[in-house]
Amino acid sequence: MHPIDRLRAVARAGWAPPDVLATEAAWALADLALHEPQALLPSCRRLLERHPGCGPLWWVSARVLSAGDPTDEALRCGDELDDDRTAELLLEAVPAGARLVRRGGVGDVAGAEIVVVEAEALGPGGMVVDSDVRGLLQAARDLEVPVWVQTGVGRILPTRIWEALARRLGDSTRPDQGHGVTVRHWGRASSDRIVRAGVPETLEGVARVAGPRGVLPLAAALTTADCPEPGELLAPW
Questions:
Q1: Cβ-count burial 75-110 (b if 16+ within 10 Å, e if not)
Q2: Per residue in 52-83, pLDDT tens?
């Protein structure tokens, strides 16, 4: 399959997990960089137009666009995503006997020691989560139960990339756009709409963040972002 066709498939994917989307994109971008390097930037932008809240896609795009050898960098990104141990590290950090809650409302949270939510992206200004966990987050805040956020490879972003993500995600949810906007894919008009993979949330109540470097306090976790900030992704397009 041509790498552009693989990227179109990623762009059109529905509710696939962020790491799956980013891994598939990384392999396709590696091939594209080898054969059509001039297509890297527009391809990364099209992916982000369709999945604006997917942190790992921003991470892959930023690293590939900043690399001296984009093919090797894309392959490296794919390997890192495949080898992500965040879920295991989170479970290892939970105190013995502590009750975790990942779904539910006030009744479920009342007897919990820790509430765990998964973020598709996290940065200094907030995080992107599934809309289904907003009630869980609010219950944790109301009952003052500590929130642990499970991230993963490529999901903790530096300030300017987070701001670009938030701006793009905000553009995709403007009231005049309904549930998405019509975009163009690789020069071809499309009636497909932006995939709403998550909603923005504040960091209120977040006590710890689980990532590929372990479970850390929020402030420490934010310093672990390993994503460059290329100008091509920071400016509106």
A1: bbbbebbeebebeebbeeebeeeeeebeeeeeebbe
A2: 999 999 999 999 999 999 999 999 999 999 99
Tally Cβ neighbours within 10 Å of residue 35.
11
Query: Residue 63 CB: number of other CB atoms within 10 A?
Result: 22
Cα–Cα distance measured from residue 61 to residue 229, given in angstroms and rounded to the nearest whole number: 10
Identify the pLDDT of residue 178: 37
Cβ atoms 113, 145 nearer than 8 A: yes
Tally Cβ neighbours within 10 Å of residue 228.
Answer: 16
Q: How confident is the model at residue 180 (pLDDT cuts 50, 70, 90)?
A: very low
Region at 28 (left for phi over 0; alpha for psi -120 to 50; beta for the rest): alpha
Do β-strands 100-101 and 188-193 pair in parallel, antiparallel, or remain unpaired?
unpaired
More confident residue, 202 or 104: 202
- Euclidean distance between CA atoms 18 and 72, whole angstroms: 21
CB-based contact 151:116 (threshold 8 Å): no
DSSP strand pairing (214-217 vs 206-211): antiparallel
